[in-house]
Amino acid sequence: MKSEIVTDAFALIITVKHESLQVGLNELFAVDKNGHLEKWLGEGVGLVTLDQSFKSVAEQFSVKKPIFIQHICPVHLSIKLSNDRDDLETILKHIQEISYLLDKDKSFSVQTRFEGSKGKSYKRFEVNETVSNAIEAMGFKLNITKPEQVISIVLSDENGYLGISLAKQNLSNWAGGKYRLAKQEDQISRAEFKLVEAIDVFNVPIPKKGMAIDLGAAPGGWTRVLLNHNLKVYAVDPAELDKSLKRHPRVVHFKETAQVFVKRHSDLKFDLIVNDMRMDVKESVSLMGIVQSSLKNGGFAIMTLKLQKKHIQKTVNQAIAQLERWYQILGARQLFYNRSEVTVFMKKK
Questions:
Q1: Taking phi first (over 0 means left), then psi (-120 to 50 degrees means alpha), and beta for anything else, what does residue 44 get?
Q2: In this structure, is residue 183 part of a structural domain?
Q3: Residue 228 CB contacts under 8 Å (≥ 6 apart), including other chains
Q4: What's the pLDDT at 1?
Q5: What is the CATH number of the domain that holds 336?
Q6: pLDDT at residue 8, as a whole number
Q7: CA 208 to chain centre
Q8: Within a domain: residue 2?
Q9: Residue 181 CB partners (closer than 8 Å, separation 6+)
Q10: Looking at the 3D structure of the chain, how many domains does it have?
Q11: CA-CA distance, 95 to 154, in Å (whole number)?
Q12: d(Cα 14, Cα 49) in Å, to the nearest integer?
């Protein structure tokens, strides 16, 4: 691609988890059949030329969100890099040239990513700072965490790829879809990050003083997240919970399987059911069909589908089709903190 300004982008940077590369590309080429992967810039980060415009692709994804693509951003122009500090001036110059694509009524952020193996004599934060300071000086409002529009800067070994888009068009507010959470002192497990991310990404409505059931709760990471949302949690698992939860006033631990619990406590009704059990997808989906009767009318459920390496798309499609017998599917994504799995957010029919 030549280093030239365009009014709309006909190239994009796609980000997909390494184990889902092909299914992610399939999702993109399902909406742009003549799109072409030019090259991989880094692990799961690819440069794609488009037949349709970026806006057209983003609009189609807004109607039906992809499951495996974590992030896209437009390439309005590409530039050559020297990988020394002169790049900062070059990047800023070209961003200023396409700044007319920014809307002064919307907040912005600058998201810079380094891809490739070559080192650079500057840091990502220096790129962000250089560009954001200049754009702020032009009268735009900076909002790093919840921007309405994004200046995307992807720097490979030889080239820089620059683009401007609405944050919602990128499928994630986070650079490359990399949702970053800091580990907390009282954190029980890494799995907590998955539920925190899901609640935020899917905008899950949680009642202030509701009841939740955590299927396969041990050691209690998801239970702890639910407690942080002021829910009373029925933690169901034959295994032990973390000692920090054993005497918590809002935790009731049932040391039995989920199937036994539902049969024995059919009178209990919950606002939210969560399931992060490591089990076969078909069995996990079947279980969600059984526990649906334990949800209050209009109640919600969050589950993870544990995927094998083969037939990923087929497995997910079949699981969702089965779940739709009992639930309205509100979202299904391979989130940043998912590992060989997909998170599904649902509402009781």
A1: left
A2: no
A3: none
A4: 43
A5: 3.40.50.150
A6: 83
A7: 25
A8: no
A9: 193, 196, 197, 337
A10: 2
A11: 12
A12: 10
Q: Which domain holds residue 266?
A: 192-348
Position 185 scores a pLDDT of 86
Reduce the DSSP state of residue 323 to 3 states and report it: helix
Same-domain status, 55 and 23: yes
> Rounded to 5 degrees, what are φ and ψ at 257?
-75, 160
My answer on whether 19 and 112 are in the same domain is: yes
Residue at which a domain ends, from 128, 150, 177: 177
pLDDT of residue 144: 94
Which residues make Cβ contacts (< 8 Å) with residue 114, sequence separation at least 6? 120, 124, 155
Question: How far apart are alpha carbons 176 and 142 in whole angstroms?
Answer: 19
281-331, pLDDT tens digit by residue?
A: 999 999 999 999 999 999 999 999 999 988 999 999 999 999 999 999 999
Task: Count Cβ atoms below 10 Å from residue 211 Cβ, excluding itself.
Answer: 19
The tokens describing 254, both together, are 């049932």
Residue 226 is predicted with a pLDDT of 98
Among 48, 62, 38, CA closest to 14: 48
Does residue 6 fall inside a structural domain?
no
The pLDDT of residue 3: 44
CATH of the domain at 98: 3.30.2130.30
Is there a single domain that holds both residue 220 and residue 270?
yes
Task: With a cut of 50, list the residues of the chain below it in pLDDT.
Answer: 1-3
Cβ density class 85-121: b for 16+ within 10 Å, e for less: eebbeebbebbeebbebbeeeebbbbbbbbbbeeebe
CA distance to 134, 262, 264, 273, per residue, from 268 (Å): 58, 9, 10, 12
Phi then psi dihedrals of residue 302, to 5 deg = -130, 130
Unique residue bearing structure tokens 């009841």: 211
Give residue 133's identity as a one-letter amino acid code: N
Q: What is the pTM of this model?
A: 0.92
pLDDT given for residue 205 in this prediction: 96
Residue owning tokens 């909002």:
143
Q: Are residues 17 and 117 in the same domain?
A: yes
Q: Which of 155, 170, 2 is nearest to 77 (CA)?
A: 2
